[in-house]
Amino acid sequence: MASGTGRSTSIDVSFLDDLAGDARSRAGLLRALRDVTGAPGQDVFSASADQILTLAEADADRYVLVVRREGQVAGVGVLHPGGASGEMLDRLDGARPQDVVVFRGFLVDRHHQGVGVGSSVAASLPALVAHLAERLGREPFASVVLVVDADNVAGRRAYSRAGFADRGAYVDANGRTQHVMALAVA
Ligand SMILES: CC(C)(COP(=O)(O)OP(=O)(O)OC[C@H]1O[C@@H](n2cnc3c(N)ncnc32)[C@H](O)[C@@H]1OP(=O)(O)O)[C@@H](O)C(=O)NCCC(=O)NCCS
């Protein structure tokens, strides 16, 4: 539903539920999404596509996004309303959990990295979050929030170019510094 052109390549991002008309097409899309793989060493930045999708399939509040480039599945992401952690909410100036959508489980396939896919998806998030509020029949969400590893240069760059502000950092259970980044969407 949201589309754009990243460095002369056509990129679109859709909710899996909107693309998958029937069980067969859903299964086919899920297979292609599970094949999305990061580059060596990137597993410190995100879970595998399989782990991302397994969690999403088990949780009705996680909405899977299908990222396509030139019609090919190029990435996966998840919008998770109400999923903000304490570390996130502590840095959102008293936002109500129900007004915040978490963007998580974002992975661009290694063959499609570095050509603007991540930036294009980040720029599409306000439209995607507005669409999610509509489909849930609720008032617009106030903000979208995510965490990104301090060493994740491409991720931090893509999010800040899309307008996300760094709201502060914390050290996670693995001793890695994670930045909370947020964008007002209402
Ligand atoms: C992070 C990620 C989503 C970015 O997606 P992408 O499609 O590769 O990003 P883009 O091509 O849009 O590049 C974004 C910016 O980072 C820069 N960049 C891309 N790869 C880079 C690299 N390896 N090192 C430094 N900068 C890099 C780009 O030049 C661009 O900056 P610019 O707009 O100033 O030119 C992708 O690399 C990825 O899936 N990584 C593994 C999983 C992950 O980190 N997920 C995000 C968790 S928060």
Automatic annotation (TrEMBL):
<protein>
    <submittedName>
        <fullName>GNAT family N-acetyltransferase</fullName>
    </submittedName>
</protein>
<dbReference type="Pfam" id="PF00583">
    <property type="entry name" value="Acetyltransf_1"/>
</dbReference>
<dbReference type="InterPro" id="IPR016181">
    <property type="entry name" value="Acyl_CoA_acyltransferase"/>
</dbReference>
<feature type="domain" description="N-acetyltransferase">
    <location>
        <begin position="17"/>
        <end position="186"/>
    </location>
</feature>
<dbReference type="InterPro" id="IPR000182">
    <property type="entry name" value="GNAT_dom"/>
</dbReference>
